[in-house]
Amino acid sequence: INLLKKINLENKFKKLGVSIDNVKELKNVMRNDSIKIIQIPFNILDWRWRKNNLLERVNKKNKKIYVRSVLLQGLLVNDKKKWPISLKKYYKKTQKDINFFVKQFNRLNALDLCIAYVKSRKNIHKIIIGVDNINQLVTLSHLFKRKNLNKKQINLIEKKFQYHQQKILTPGKW
User: Fold this and answer.
1) Is the pLDDT of residue 91 over 70?
2) Given Cys at both, which of 97, 136, 148, 150 links 120, Cβ 3.0 to 4.6 Å?
């Protein structure tokens, strides 16, 4: 970080940012005033960032939150065949709960629900999603134009998904 701050003295970039993976790293980054953008994995299952109003606290420090892994590397929208063997035991319940909310909130599908959840959350400034082809990009473009979830819907989702196994939330442990 010190090297980046030195380079920034030459106005090579506007803001310094970091990509982190866990709450411990976030707490360390929050103490560094030079870092203005923090990229985190965030999705409908990931309760870690909701604890202790972490995202609100980040915003109060004038830092921006960018999120990635909105679909948990595709896990949230893929069928059971594409789930890692070590996670297959979580598939049925996870999909049942996601599909319940898809129907309950009149969403198009799991992808629509996952996108709506993340874009409806306050304190998130940018969403980063990778695509494999133009069709995926067009689909995402349409989904981003759909109505956000309301606070009551967000609360119901967060109550349901408040204690998923950390193993699911961390692709490196799959």
Assistant:
1) yes
2) 148
For residue 97, what are the contacts with CB-CB under 8 A and spacing of at least 6?
Answer: 160, 161
Model's pTM, two decimal places?
A: 0.90
> Which has the higher per-residue pLDDT, 114 or 34?
114
Give, in order, the Cα–Cα distances in Å from 161 to each of 66, 96, 132, 157: 21, 12, 28, 6
Q: CA 64 to CA 160: how far, in whole Å?
A: 27
16, 108, 115 from 35: Cα distances, Å = 5, 38, 27
Q: Element (H or E) spanning 8, and its range?
A: helix 2-8
- Which residue carries 């349409």 as its tokens? 142
